[in-house]
Amino acid sequence: MAEYSCLIVEDSPMMRQLLVFALARVKNLRVTEADDGVDGLRKLASARYDIIVTDINMPIMDGLKLVKRVRSDPVHKDTPIVIITTEGSQEDRQRALQLGANAYITKPIQAPQVIATVKELLKLE
Amino acid sequence: MSKESKRRGPGSSDNPPDLKKERDQFLQSFSKGAKLTEEFVKEHEQLQKKLLELEAENTRLRATLEADAAIRDLLQKIEDLEQEKRDLLSRYREAQAVSTKVSRRFHEVETEFANLANLFVASNQLHSSMSPRGVTRRIKEVLAQLVGAERYCMYLANAEGTELVPIASEGIPGERLMSLHVDGTEIGEVFKSGQAVVDEDRDPSQGTLDRPSAVVPLSVDDKVVGVIAIFATLSQKKKFDTIDFELFKLLGQHAAAALVAASLFAQAERKLPGLEAFLDLSV
Fold first, then answer.
1. What is the C-alpha separation between B182 and B185, in angstroms, rounded?
2. C or N terminus of chain B, fewer CB within 10 Å?
3. Phi and psi at residue B231, in whole multiples of 5°?
4. What are phi and psi of B128, to 5 degrees?
């Protein structure tokens, strides 16, 4: 059975833990964690990922910059990206989607919603 | 005619035969016979025609009978198929009901799992730091990330238990960040009673600093030492769910305890107690 890999980019250890817990429910999905955008890019440079889940508000490099960088990278330009944000504003979502994010989840996150979004983007049953 | 024939001919009597009459009679008889034959022929033709008609009718009737039998068969087949369809529909409905029940149960289990994961992560995070600042940061994370609080304040009571002093907050203007008297304030009442107050009738994102959406007492060893007041949630959070109430309970029981433990550890200059501190713990 095919194995998928997911990169979680989130500065909050609590949110990371919660996302790891949620995504552990997705069969054959291997999860890697990154503390911020820079750490995320470092991990993307050394491995291929099938999906990226990233927070927007992060120190050093935020999620929007990360999306922009990923989309300009020939290796990961087509990798689905899910944005997680505390902002409820339409503007923020629009910006993320314009930059190339595929979906967004608004905090407080619900595990079933995270699972459903990731499964949908990976085209899993 | 010879003499002999004149003597022996028909009607040989004394009178001479009336040939003309005989001829007429014969002709009449012949004519009758011919007429009769004609009638027979005509009748025969009619009978032949009738026979053909009857044969045609017979063929048609046979065909009709066969068609009727085929229709009867078809009707029977339709009835059988209808019955089969009814059975299948009934089984489908049963299967659908079971499937709906399983889906509902699956959804409930998933939600329950998500809630437990939230509680586990919150509890785990609250106790994962041994510095007062770290614990405070984690309490704020639980409030912001898991509860979805946008404006909130954590108060601890002074030694006399008369005032609540703000020690951590988010989204509250500096001029409103002040100590509160325990008496005469809604937040103070929660501190005194030890009972959480959650305004369930109102959209929690619409709460104000004067009318908080939720106030949760913080306890250490069954003693109330402070409160968390959530003045407003994020705009997308329109109501508190079961998990929020569970998180309030968890924060009430663990937040202050984690904070006190971290403060004591800091006061002890992060020195772990010696083994002698644990020797008398056997029960």
1. 6
2. C
3. -85, -40
4. -90, -5
Separation of alpha carbons A90 and A82, rounded Å: 16
Query: What pLDDT digit, counting tens, does each position of B26-37 carry?
Result: 888 888 888 889
What is the per-residue pLDDT for B1? 43
Indicate yes or no: CB of B110 within 8 angstroms of CB of A25.
Answer: yes
Q: How far is B135 from chain A (nearest CA, A)?
A: 12
Q: What pLDDT was estimated at residue B278?
A: 79
At B211, the amino acid letter reads R
- Per-residue tokens: B3: 């003499």
The pLDDT tens digits of the residues spanning B120-175 come to 999 999 999 899 999 999 999 999 989 999 999 999 999 999 999 999 999 999 88
Q: Above pLDDT 70, what percent of chain B? A: 93
What is the SS3 assignment for B170? strand
Q: Which long-range contacts (CB under 8 A, 24 or more apart) does B157-166 make?
A: B157/B182, B157/B191, B157/B224, B157/B225, B157/B226, B161/B191, B164/B188, B164/B191, B164/B226, B164/B227
Chain A interface mutation, best of B103, B120, B145, highest count of A Cβ atoms under 10 Å = B145
Torsions phi, psi for A78 (to 5 deg) = -105, 5
CATH number of the domain residue A80 falls in: 3.40.50.2300
Please judge whether B234 and A111 are an interchain contact, meaning their C-beta atoms are less than 8 angstroms apart. no
pTM over 0.90, yes/no: no
Mutation for B interface: A8, A14, A27, A104, most B CBs within 10 A: A14
In terms of residue numbers, what domain contains A33? 4-121
